[in-house]
Structure formats: structure tokens, C-alpha cells
Amino acid sequence: MKVNRPNASEAFGITPAVLPATSSTVSPAASTFPSFAGLDDDTAAQHARQLYGDGLPEGLLSSSQYKSYERMFGAPDIISEAELEREFEAVADESNDLTGTGVLREAEDGSLEEVEYTAEAEEEDADIDAALSHLEKEWKTMDEDEHIMYLDDVRYFKLEQYLRSNDKDEEADELLQCLFLHYEAKVEAEARKRAEVENENTEEEILIEEVIEEEMHDSEDTELAGEATQRTHPFTEENRFTTFPSTVTLPQSALVGPVSAIISGTSPVHLADAAKRIFGGDGLPYSTSNPSFAKSMPQKAIPLDPSLDRMSDIEADSYFAAVMPGTYASVMSALVESRKRLGSGWLESLLQKEGGPRILDAGSAGAGVVAFRSLLRAEWQRLSDNSDDEEASKGLAPADGRAGGAPVEAPTGKATVLASSDTMRKRASVLLDNTTFIPRLPDYIHASDPSAAQHGKFDVIIAPHTLWPLKEEYLRKQYVANLWSLLNADGGLLVLVEKGVPRGFEMIAGARKFLLDTRIASPGNEKVAEEVDEPGEGHVFGVTDKGKGMIIAPCTNHSGCPMYTKPGMSAGRKDYCHFEQRYTRPPYLQKLLRAKDKNHEDVQFSYLTIMRGRDLRDRDEQAIVQGDTATSRAFEGYEHMEPEEFVEDEFDPTAPAISESSAIRTSPHGLMLPRAVFSPLKRTGHVILDLCTPSGTLERWTVPRSFSKQAFRDARKSQWGDLWALGAKTRVAREGVTMSAKAKRKLAEQPPKRKRAQPIIYDVPVDGGSGKVQEGGIKPLVGGRLRRGKISGVRDKRDKTGSGRGRKKASAVD
Q1: CB 676, CB 720: distance < 8 Å
Q2: Is 0.70 topped by the overall pTM?
């Protein structure tokens, strides 16, 4: 259907009815006056007043319109056609005589002279006509939305003219200011659009240039193409301490969603108040978080533990909301690092087990199980990926989903979770399927079947934040020994995690020392003295053989920890082994902390992963050697060694151990390299790395620019926790600082504590008759026990007969 649209002059109100005659060639007598027939009386009177002022041409208005004019403006002066014609002729003659506009200018003699200049009225009229014609063409090309926008602009300008005609200049200025802001925003939007288009064009040009460069690069000689390598050395890339991506994101369906549903029944305000009360106030310093101000606070363990037999609903919700996210991130980081050191064969063997791996979560109420299942799922997807196999898509999918079609779900295995309280157990059951919940850990050490402790049960045991709540060292040793007995004797993995503070490190270091001293055999240290409280017949010489085992991460040695030279608690410990993992906070934790500036957190933790029943140092295929030989070889660097391909799946636990004198392979295993235990010190021209070496020592290696361009570049990109394989130019020993210099000075300035003098107790005999003290009989009491204060239930017996056999009163004299 064709729509009749008005032209530009009609749309803008520029019609012959409202425009005065401007032509000087046609007389008003010969022309026709504007017609107001289609307008109402008041509108016609207003238009006539606006066009002709006080004098109206004769016959311009009708009788009704004339009455409206008189009512609104008073009686007008009627001008006849003859008067209009004479007036027009006079103006025309004057315009013909004058060719310009005359002005008076002062001459040199001081008199005034008239000067004429040519008026540009005709040029202005031509400009107006051109503008109207351009407007007419532009109006025809507009759509309906643009017509509306133009009409709004015209209404604004008409309103501005009306305001100024009524001496309302301030309102008119405000209106123009609003229009200016409107047009400025419009111009900025158009500029942004043009910039986006230009950027897209630029990106396309850059992409085209890159494609051209790649094509030119491919067309070059194969020798030149072979020299092109990636910037980061492969050994540096594969030995980095990081997850992928580097920021851990909590799984939405497995953790964030269920926990959100669990705590949805609790008021957020009440939950935040309870979390602050339980975990130390703002920032939750006694949870897994490590705010900066917590360094000046006393170090305490996480107050809530799944092993507690009583826990209220709001305490359980606080644990799930405040502790579980950081626990998941730290456990995931430890598992990923262990997977890198063990290779893909470890997880592949667990996936191939009937029923899947057996997992024990001893301290995180299921967060460790969720983390390990995420790792299993990623490994299963890697094994099921057949994108590189062209023939896989042509075949039918077998039962395991390895070829063609969508892969089946990864085996999640059988999980066992420690949850003593009913509130914790009900909430953890929402997170996990195929899971058994137990109120306490089984005791395999004192089990009736001695073979239970020898063989173990679980393939993976995850025990985060379980050592620190135990108050005594012997209790922690018993706990670690029990976990070791529960671990599968054929390659089970134990994961211990504590907070990344000095006390948490001491718990991990103490567990490491206990296992190395009593459970894990190393060359030259294969036997240990028997413990009298352990069940069994015992050995005739009172010693027993240690079992096979190996530390997987983070240590690359089996010597004493160089930062734990003084066992137990150490006041003011400055150097301690801990690591950091960034994770994205879930919404409920963000709300709990009232955080608005960032949605991520860096959780600091100390950890230890140990494998039972297998010693990777026995594998001659990889030639894993630790000690001084490995440290010296790592100092020389592996930069110019080609990576060697080797099979990680094949494992022979009966293979003989390799001595340190044996040749080391050119492709280094991660367990043969030193690890950065502090952030690298990046200086101008050199980088300083503080490393824990395979020799079990702390050393400071310096990598200058002159040593190697590749090593210097990778050292500047290295991070806290990375293994270093490219060597260094200089190395010096570094002693672990157990107490800062400031703390030592403060301790030295304090006066020595004086022992409180013990009171001397005297026996004062009293004469029963007179009640006087017998001075000669006063003597100090040497032995026995003195009762102090009033004792409930004992009546003060007096010597009423004077025989001296009553209860004697004693007084204390300092």
C-alpha cells in the first residue's frame, strides 16, 4: 500500500499560509492573500497578527475570524488594496535606487561622509532556497523514524524561539544546553561506531598480513622453518606450577549450584554474622582465607572440622560457604601438580580398575572428592578424544565410547567421606553420588586382621586441614600412621593440605619427617626401630624393614626439609614452604565477604603428596636420580638437550634401584629438578631464584643475561613454585630463616624472666589452753601436701581437749 507522506515544507510547518510574501516583482494587488479558511478562528487570528501586525489587509479574515482577532488583540487598522499598492511601489522604487546600504564614516578633516556597501540579501535568499531544496531532497530519503526525529528537533527550536519572544532567556538557554548534550551524545555514538568499524577493518588487515606472513614462512626452506621455535623452552613449560587455566573455577553443577541450594534456607545476614563469629571476623582469617591483616593475628586452626560429632545447622552452612571453596582450590592445585609428576599412566591405571578408583575424603566434607572427580573427568575426555583419528568417526561406537559417537561418562569410582555430625552428612549427601559416609576413620593398625594394614584399601586419600586441630604431636603421628595404613600398598596416593602459614607448614613438615623416618625406605635408610605398641610378634633385633614409597610433590628430595631443621613449633618462623592458588569466588562467598572490588582470591597452602608401595626412583626407563648428582646436573642446565619420548604406562615395581653414579638421562624428569620456593627476584640484567634442590638444601641461583638468552627470558617469566631446568651461572647456599632479625632483636631486648619465689610454709603450734603461739615450736614444713582455701565437705576440727591432736593451722610467709 502506498503511503502519502508530506513534503519537507509541510512537515516543518513552512506553508504559504504562514509565510509572508518576499518577492519584490509581484504586487500584493495582483497576488492572492493567504487563505485561513481551513483554520479555526483563534489560530487564524494569531497567524494574521504574526504576519501583518496591527494593520490587516482588507478582506483577509472572515467575520468570525475578525471577531476573534478583536477579542484577542483589539480592533486592527484596515489597509485597503490601493494603500498596499502605493506602499509597495514606493518600496520597490527605493530598492531600485539603492544598490547597497549606506553608513556614515568620519573623514580625515573630521566631517562625516556617507559610504555604501553592497548588500548580500540576494545571496542569502539563494542560500535559503538551496537549503530548502536540499532539505526537500533529504526529507524524501528519510524513513518514518527519521521523520519523527527531525520533527522533534523542529519542535525544540520553535519552543526556543517562543521562549525568547516572551523574555524567558534562561529557560531557552537550558533548552539549548539539553539539545547540545543530546547532539553531543549522538555524535559520540556515531564516532564509536566508526571506530569499531575501523578496528574491525584493521584487525582484518592484520589477520590478512599474518596469513600472508605464514604462507611466506611456509614457502621458505625447511631448514629455516626448523629453526623457528616457541619462545618458552619446552622444559620450562612442562614444569610450571600452575593449573590450566591458571585461575581455578569451581564447577557449577557439581559444587556451586548444590552449595547454593544447601545454604538458601539460611538468611544471608545471619550466615554472614555466624561466619564472622566462627572464623575470626571480617575477612574470615581463620578459614582458608589469608587476608593481609591476619599476619599480626595469632595463628589458629580452622575451628570447624567434619570430624566434629556435633555441629549446628548454621555452623554447617558456614563451613560449606566459607571453607569449602578454598579447600577445593588448594586440593585441585595439589592433585594437578601430582598428575604432572606421575604422568598420565597413573590416572589411566585408576580408570581401568574395576569399579573405578576408591577415594577417601578425610577432612573436606566432599570437596576433595569433587576435585578428584573433576581431574578424572578431564583425563577421561583426553583419552576419549578421537579428533585426530580420521577413521574413528567412520566406525560404530563401542561400549566404552572410544571410537565414534559421544563418549560415555567417566567412571567416578567409589567415594568414602568422613562426616561425623548429622548436619554435615545431610549436606554432603547433596553434593555426591555413589558415596559412603562414615562417622570416624577405621583403625587398620590395631585391626584384628594384620593384613589389612599391609595391603590398605583406598587408592587416593585426601586429608585437608586435619593435622592442625590435633593438639599433641603424638596424636598427629598416630593419625598419619593410620592414614598410611588405609592407603593402598600398590600405588596409593596420600594428599595432606594445611593453611599456608608457619603453623600449617610445621604440621606438614612434621608428617613428612615421620613418614620418612618410619615408613618410606631410601637408599641407605631401609630399616627402622620397631615400636613397642604396634601389634605383631616383632623382630629379634628390634628393627623392621621400611616399605616402598616416594614423595611426589612438592619435594624433589627425600632428605630432611631444609626449612624444618628445628622440629616442632618455632617462634617467629619466616621461611616456610607454602604455595598459592587463585580461584574465582562463588557468588555466596562473595556476598559473605561483602567483597565488591574483586571476585577472586589467592589461597595459600602447604601440602604434601606421597605414594605408597611404588618408588619411581626404581624406574630405569626414566632414570630418576636425586641427590647431589641431580643438583649438579640441573645447575649445568638442560637447555640444549632434546626432549626424549618415553612410555609412562609401563611400570615395573621389581626393577632395581638406580644409583647416583649412573648416567642421567638428557630429558629431565620433574622429580630431578629444583623447585622455586619463593618468588623470583627479578633485577636489571639478572634473575635470582631461591630453590629447594634435589640434595635437600636451599640454594640461591643467579641467572644473568650473559648466561643464556633463553634461560634469562624464562627466568623472568618463572613463578613461585615452578621447577627450574635451564641451569644458572652462580649458586650459593641459603640458610632457612626460622626467626626474622627484628624478632631476634626484640627478644634480646626483653629482660630475662625471673622465676616466682615459692612461698615457704611454716608450722605454727598454738597452746590449746591459752591460745598463744609457741614460738619455739615454729618450723618450716618440708614434705607433704598443704590444702589451701576452704575445702567443701571437710569440717574444721579443733583441738578441744588441748592434747595437740587437732587440725593445725598453717600460714604462708614469703
Answers
A1: yes
A2: no
